[in-house]
Amino acid sequence: MTSPRFPDGPILEVGIDxxxxxxxxxxIRDFGDSYLERVFTDAERAYCAGLGGQSSxxxxxxxxxxxATAKVLRVGDQAMSWxxxxxxxxxxxxxxxxxxxxxxxxxxxxxxxxxxxxxxxxGDYATAVVVGDRHRPRTLVTRFRRxxxxxxxxx
Amino acid sequence: xxxxxxxxxxxxxxxxxxxxxxxxxSDLYEAGMTSLSSVNVIxxxxxxxxxxxxxxxxxxxxxESVASIRSAVEELSRIAQEQGKAPSSKPRPSRPxxxxx
Lengths: 155, 101
Hints:
The structure holds two protein chains of two kinds. Chain A is an alpha+beta fold.
């Protein structure tokens, strides 16, 4: 066999999202703190608010990151707050995804690990790409074959 | 209640189709609503009906049609009234519509 990564090994899941920054600006204008507190964690709001007039692009990029992560997690119709997916900044300035609450449970349920994030915003749009490893549970057949001694088939 | 929900959808869901032409069971996501615009819809519903959507109801299925939204609003309104949190059965006016660009 020459495919050790499939079906037993992890496979890559990719999620992407694109947000019009003006849509986020409109939502902030219409709903203010109610919108920000519903969607973003305290740390996300503190970081973006500290950027002053450029905050809407950063908020939009973070929303895109939450949506891209939801696609990787395969949230489907499961209930989850947007705050369960958080964008954090590492000391080197890069960003990463941290899951909380329901998002952790969904990730475990679907075998998603090792999320990686890249986000950007320029002009009218913000975007984010998230990649994660999906570890699929082994099938009964796979387990049986792994336990069977070599050369035992057909006997 | 359906008319109030449809007004909120018209103002906040950024649908690509006329909400008046959608049935109560039409899929709002297929009609153009996004996850981003669904946040606006949720906040507008909360303001209009004096309710708060708990995390357990923040799923795609709850907001996928006028009928499913109505079901959730009725449940939350009933709970709010039982807890004495609903000041009036008459909904407040919706927030102003977000202009399109």
